[in-house]
Task: inverse folding
C-alpha cells in the first residue's frame, strides 16, 4: 500500500506499508495540493468505557466489545488502556478475568489495563467518583493476584503514596521488573513523599488538576509539587470541564514535553447523548453539556470526550501547535508503555488520515496497515 500525504510538520511524503508496518516514508518530490494529513494513531491510557459500553461492568456480549473498540477506531484511537476504577478484590478479579479473555481472543486496539484503584486517597478532596469504602493500602499480594489473572496485561497503576509510603514503594519496585508503570493520582502527595515515590519509579501523575482540593494554599498544593518534580509526566483531560481552559493552557505549557493527554472516557462518550449511564456500580448522569457527573454530589465521573476531538480541543486551549499536542496523545503515551508508534520505517502502521484543511475531520484510521475506519 502506498499513500501520499502531508506530515503535521508540513512536509509532503510518500508512505509505503508492507506486512502491517511502515516500509518507508520518503519526501514527495512534486507539488500536490489538497493532500490529507497523516499522523500517528492516538493512544489513550485511560478509558473507563466508550460508545455506551462500560468496561467496569460485565459486558453484555462479544458484540459490545467489538462495538466499543470499533468506535474507538472511528475516533482515531489505535491503542488504549482499559481503566478499571476502585472495586472490591473479587470485583477486580471478575472484571480482569472477563476482559483478559476478550483481549486474548480479539485484542483489537486494546493494549491492556490501567488499574485506577483501590490504592487511592479516600479523603473527599481526592477520591472523586471512587468508592472510599473499597480503597486500601498498596499490597504486593494483590498485585501478584492481578498478574496471575492477566499475565503481562497490567500496564499502568495509579496510587496515592501518602496512604502508606513504604507499601507504595514496595509495590512500585515489585511491578517495575514486569514492565508496569506507576502514576500518582487521587492523591495529596507533596514534598518528600512525592520525591520518594518518583525516585522509586513513579513516572507521572494521573489527570493532574482533578481529584484535588477545590481550595488549597497558594504554594503548598499538588499542582505545583507535581510540576516541580524533575521528569514527572502528567496527563490532562482536554474537555474544558475537568480543567478550565485558562488552567489547561498554564499546565500544558508548564509541562511541555512531559504532557500526556487522555479522555478518561466513560460509557457516555460517543454514545446517545444526555441520559443515565454506569461507571461500575455507580450511576452517572450526562447532561446536555456533555458533562458526566454523579447525580447526588455533582462530582465529575469520567468524561464524554473522544480522542480525536480531544486533540483539537487541546490545541485550542493550550496554544501549542497541533503537532505538539498530537505527540502528547500518541507517540509519548506509547513510549510510556514501551511501544514505538511513530511514523518511522519498521514501526507498526498505526495512523490517522486527516482532512486537507486540518480541521477536526477524520478521514480514516489504520491499524497495523489495515483500514479499520473510513469516513462515509
Result:
Amino acid at each position: 500500500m502506498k499513500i501520499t500525504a502531508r506530515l503535521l510538520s508540513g512536509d509532503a511524503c510518500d508512505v509505503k506499508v508492507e506486512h502491517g508496518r511502515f516500509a518507508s516514508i520518503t519526501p514527495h518530490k512534486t507539488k500536490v495540493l489538497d493532500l490529507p494529513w497523516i499522523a500517528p494513531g492516538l493512544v489513550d491510557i485511560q478509558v473507563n468505557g466508550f460508545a455506551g459500553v462500560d468496561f467496569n461492568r460485565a459486558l453484555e456480549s462479544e458484540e459490545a466489545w467489538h462495538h466499543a473498540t470499533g468506535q474507538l477506531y472511528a475516533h482515531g484511537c489505535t491503542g488504549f488502556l482499559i481503566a478499571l476504577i476502585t472495586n472490591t478484590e473479587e470485583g477486580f478479579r471478575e472484571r480482569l478475568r472477563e476482559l483478559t479473555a476478550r483481549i486474548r481472543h480479539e485484542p483489537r486496539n486494546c493494549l491492556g489495563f490501567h488499574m485506577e484503584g483501590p490504592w487511592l486517597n479516600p479523603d473527599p478532596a481526592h477520591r472523586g467518583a471512587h468508592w472510599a469504602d473499597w480503597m486500601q493500602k498498596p499490597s504486593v499480594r494483590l498485585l501478584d493476584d492481578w498478574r496471575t489473572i492477566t499475565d503481562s496485561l497490567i500496564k499502568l497503576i495509579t496510587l496515592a503514596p501518602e496512604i502508606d509510603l513504604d507499601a507504595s514503594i514496595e509495590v512500585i519496585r515489585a511491578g517495575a521488573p514486569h514492565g508496569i508503570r506507576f502514576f500518582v493520582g487521587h492523591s495529596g502527595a507533596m514534598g518528600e513523599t512525592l520525591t520518594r515515590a518518583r525516585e522509586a519509579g513513579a513516572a507521572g501523575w494521573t489527570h493532574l488538576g482533578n481529584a484535588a482540593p477545590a481550595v488549597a494554599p497558594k504554594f503548598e498544593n499538588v499542582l505545583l509539587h507535581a510540576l516541580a518534580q524533575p521528569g514527572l509526566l502528567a496527563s490532562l483531560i482536554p474537555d474544558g470541564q475537568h480543567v478550565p481552559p485558562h488552567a489547561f493552557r498554564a499546565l500544558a505549557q508548564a509541562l511541555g514535553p512531559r504532557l500526556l493527554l487522555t479522555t478518561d472516557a466513560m460509557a457516555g462518550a460517543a454514545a446517545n447523548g444526555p441520559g443515565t449511564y454506569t461507571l461500575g456500580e455507580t450511576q452517572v448522569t450526562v447532561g446536555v453539556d456533555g458533562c458526566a457527573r454523579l447525580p447526588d454530589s455533582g462530582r465529575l465521573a469520567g468524561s464524554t470526550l473522544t480522542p480525536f476531538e480531544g486533540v483539537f480541543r487541546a490545541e485550542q486551549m493550550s496554544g501549542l501547535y497541533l503537532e505538539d499536542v498530537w505527540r502528547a496523545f500518541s507517540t509519548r503515551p506509547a513510549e510510556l508503555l514501551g511501544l514505538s508508534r511513530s511514523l518511522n520505517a519498521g514501526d507498526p502502521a498505526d495512523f490517522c488520515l486527516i482532512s486537507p484543511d486540518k480541521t477536526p475531520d477524520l478521514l480514516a484510521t489504520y491499524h497495523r496497515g489495515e483500514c479499520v475506519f473510513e469516513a462515509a
